[in-house]
Amino acid sequence: MPEEHTGVAQLARFETPADLLHAVRACRQKQWLAFAIYTPFPVEEIQSSMHYAPTRVPWAAFWTGVVLALSLLVMQWYSAAIDYPYIVAGRPFFSLPAFAVITGVMAMLGGVLGSFVAMLVGNRLPQPYHQVFNADDFGCDTESFWLMLYSGAADIDAQAARDCLAECGATTTQEVEA
Predict the structure, then answer these.
(1) Helix pair angle (57-77, 96-122), 10° resolution
(2) Phi, psi of 70 (to 5 degrees)
(3) What's the pLDDT tens digit per position in 38-49?
(4) What is the topology classification, in CATH, of domain 8-54+127-177?
(5) CATH 3.30.70 in the chain, residues?
(6) Spatial CA neighbour of 17 closest among 106, 144, 122
(7) What are the pLDDT digits (tens) for 90-100?
């Protein structure tokens, strides 16, 4: 899950994905791990160099699917065997094959709902405001690559961050209130 950052951030604009990749590697080499990337299209080299932590979405999907399927199975058992037992051709009150299909469907539905909710929580959505909106020309351009380095997250000097980003090929660098 991404961390919440406050304070001042350095927002740098790059013209090519190679420059952005160079800046990401430079930030990681200096142990500046608090940064975000905004690109007009997915750049796989950058994604692999950021070293994201493993996500918890698969576990949330699995456990919500299991809990929903078991709770539905218990509800079906209670209604068929305890609350309203109905004898049909000498069959048992609760027969698992009769309830297996709907239990499987509910397990899949629970997994989908769990993964959707975990994704929303993990990305802190809906988020009607983001600090990148404080930038002057962020939304005007659909061809630039952006890197936001959170200066207040660690002991990062703002001037050193600007210098490092300029060395990596940033065309503009601006301070953004995070």
Answers:
(1) 150
(2) -65, -40
(3) 898 888 888 777
(4) Alpha-Beta Plaits (3.30.70)
(5) 8-54+127-177
(6) 144
(7) 888 888 888 99
